[in-house]
Amino acid sequence: MKVGERIREFRIAKGWTQKELAFNSGLAEITIRQYEKGKRTPKTKQLQEIASVLDVSINELLGINPIQTLSNMTKFLNYLDSLGYEYIPTIDAVIGDDYDRGIYIKDESITIPLTKEEFENLENEIMRDVETEIYKLRKQRNL
Q1: β-strand 101-105 against 85-88: which pairing, if any?
Q2: Total domain count for the chain?
Q3: Same domain flag for 50 and 87
Q4: Which of 18, 101, 125, 131 could bond to 58 as cystine, CB 3.0-4.6 Å?
Q5: Running DSSP on this structure, what letter comes out for residue 104?
Q6: Same domain, 55 and 28
Q7: With contact defined as beta carbons under 8 Å apart, do 25 and 7 qualify?
């Protein structure tokens, strides 16, 4: 299945028309139609926009199913650790009850308190960045 077919599949699953997907992604309706018919292929930026509004990953749009040897959370935590950060699952923050977790910066010995929502947003943004960079590399190498 090609990327346009998957865009159509995810759009329909969300209950949207092509017009609604176009509006929500900031693209022209004709562009969405051309993607879905396979007449055009979305560039990285457009793929990010479409994936974001459809609440799917770029990998899902591309039909990439990586082998799951570790849970996504474990992969994410290992990645944070490789960058010099550590996830602290429970903290007592003085700035508010909602701040129940944190990111410890090893080099600076400080912890940034986070809410559950802030942590999930951080995780999603990092995963999107990684997926985007991998997509660019695959595209450059015609893979």
Answers
A1: antiparallel
A2: 2
A3: no
A4: 131
A5: E
A6: yes
A7: no
Structural domain contains residue 67: no
Q: Give Cα separations from 69 to 17, 63, 66, 87, 128 (angstroms).
A: 36, 18, 9, 21, 20
24-33 pLDDT, tens digit per residue, is: 999 999 999 9
Mean pLDDT (the chain) is: 85
Contacts with 51 (C-beta within 8 Å, 6 or more apart), sequence order? 57, 58, 60, 61, 128
In the structure encoding, which two tokens stand for residue 119, read together?
């942590």
Same domain, 55 and 84: no
> What confidence score (pLDDT) does residue 68 get?
47
Residue at 129 is within a domain = yes
**Tens digit of each residue's pLDDT (9 = 90 or more) over 43-63:** 988 999 999 999 888 888 888
The pLDDT of residue 37: 95
Distance (Å, rounded) from C-alpha 16 to C-alpha 53? Answer: 11
